Amino acid sequence: MKTLWKALMMVRRCDPASFFRRVLYVVLQSLLPLVNLYILKLLIDRVTLAVQGVVPASVILPWLAAMAGVFLLSRVVTALGTVNADVLSQKLIDYLNDLLQRQAARLDMSYYDTPSYHDTLHRAQQEASSRPVAVLTNFMALFGSLISILGVTAMLLTASWWILPVMVVALLPSFCVRLYKARSIYAFRRSNTQLYRRTSYYSQLLTSRQSAAEMRTYRLAPYFRLRYVDARRRLVGRLLTISRRLGVADILCAVVEAVAMLAVVWLLVGQTVSAAITIGSFVMLFEAFRRGQGYLSSLVAAVAGLYDNRLFVGNLFEFLGLEPEVVSPENPEPMPQRIEEIEFRDITFRYPDMERDVLSHFNLTARVGEVTRIDGRNGYGKSTLVKLLLRLYDPQQGTVLVNGIDIRRFRLDELRGTMGVLFQEFMHYCCTADENIAFGDIDHPEKETARAAALAGVQPVIDGLPQKGGTQLGRLFDGGAELSMGQWQRMALARALHSDAPVLLLDEPYAWLDSDARSHLHESIEALKKEKIILMITHA
């Protein structure tokens, strides 16, 4: 119940006004059908008396007007409730996506190295947009059903007390089936999370631009289509097995409910024939029983739904409950005004779930005025040094120092703010050319990007674009201009240089550059090393 309450309060926090309007509309939508049912009874009784000539036909008009008024009010409330539900749903989606994005951004890089994290994230993303809304819907359905059932109970007690236990007992099998179904579906989805992720991965390979060239060149599309189809076949087969078993149970439950309805209707017919109740009362009680079954069914569905959604909402809170290990200290030291030296001292590091160390007792010192080159073969941990210096990870042993101070004593954002980085796997942002560079110093969007572009040798590329720096890059959106890999790398280099950070980390900066671009970059680095610490990673 605690999980459900947390989900309900989450819905309330995202938009309190819409939340309480939803409660009001549910109350009205639960009461108005009962009012309409009672008016129907009175109307039929008046019609019967008018047919018998006991009263004039004009006495029917007020009840007709009352019925029309209740009908109109019910439609208005339904329309307002639908709009309000849409507003609340959209606000909740935005609120939850914000929570997920913030949580993903604050977690350590090490989480991304474990399949269990991706399973947790996948389950959270699958449920985030719908489950809390479903919890609210279930609570409101439960609340509304209870109100309606109380009204129906008052009506049915005028005929016979045993109608109520018959209704309840008839729905008990359905209640048990729904709970079993909720548990079965939850267990199925949780145990098949990776298989669901595989289908998403194969679909992405078949449809994304990034993989399009190799899919065609190596004729891989049929292979991955078969893998996608096979994964889907396994998922669907397991799901249909559960569905068929539950379908048989649902049919048996329907038989029980039909027998209960037959017994109650027979009782009401007997009382009407014996003149114990009027025709209007028969219509009202028959409708009350029929609707009562529906309300009880809705109550059962709401309870089962709450049970179902409690399980799935747990996935969302499981993800939101993850905590980073790489965090800022409680009492951080201020970053030095000028960074003179960076030292890696006796560093030993391995990635999560790996059996061997990427770095073992590694030592290195870098100073202002020189370019510190780190050469080595693939897999020797060169790029890992950049991640350790940025505190994307912490080493298992050893210390990274800035001016002799352990970097774990600085605030994370201040430490990372002193680093301009060209990553080996640099980003292609589908934004404007100017934005691609300005992202290097996002806190100062007004700063000119021309100097960084010139140092990186990408200014001629920008000048040749249709709208210069305002040109959209990439072919993901309309009007975008695609760049070569070398041009994208120079754009990423300009982003690193735009930060004016005192430390410059360059991971394979020459990888995609032609000879002219390499010469230009070399000249820029020679000019910058007088005022910066420069670490350059290259292949041996």
Describe the model.
The protein has about 550 residues and is α/β, with parallel strands linked by helices. The protein folds into two domains: about 1-320, ABC transporter type 1, transmembrane domain (ABC transporter transmembrane region fold, Up-down Bundle), CATH 1.20.1560.10; about 340-540, P-loop containing nucleotide triphosphate hydrolases (Rossmann fold), CATH 3.40.50.300. Helix content is about 65%, strand content about 10%. It has 17 helices and eight strands. The protein has helices spanning about 1-15, 15-50, 60-105, 115-130, 130-155, 165-190, 195-205, 210-215, 220-275, 280-320, 380-390, 410-415, 435-440, 450-455, 460-465, 485-500, 515-530, and strands at about 340-350, 360-365, 370-375, 395-400, 405, 420, 505, 535-540. Strands 2-1-4-5 form a four-stranded antiparallel β-sheet, covered by helices on one side. Strands 3-8-7-6 form a four-stranded parallel β-sheet, with helices on both faces. The radius of gyration is 34 Å and the shape is elongated. It starts with a helix and ends with a strand. The relative contact order is 0.09. The model has no long low-confidence stretch (mean pLDDT about 80).
Topology at a glance:
Blueprint lengths: L1 H13 L1 H36 L8 H47 L8 H14 L2 H26 L6 H29 L1 H15 L1 H9 L3 H53 L5 H42 L20 E9 L9 E9 L3 E6 L5 H8 L7 E6 L2 E2 L5 H5 L2 E4 L10 H6 L11 H7 L2 H5 L21 H14 L4 E5 L7 H14 L4 E7 L1
Parallel strand pairs: 3-8, 6-7, 7-8
Antiparallel strand pairs: 1-2, 1-4, 4-5
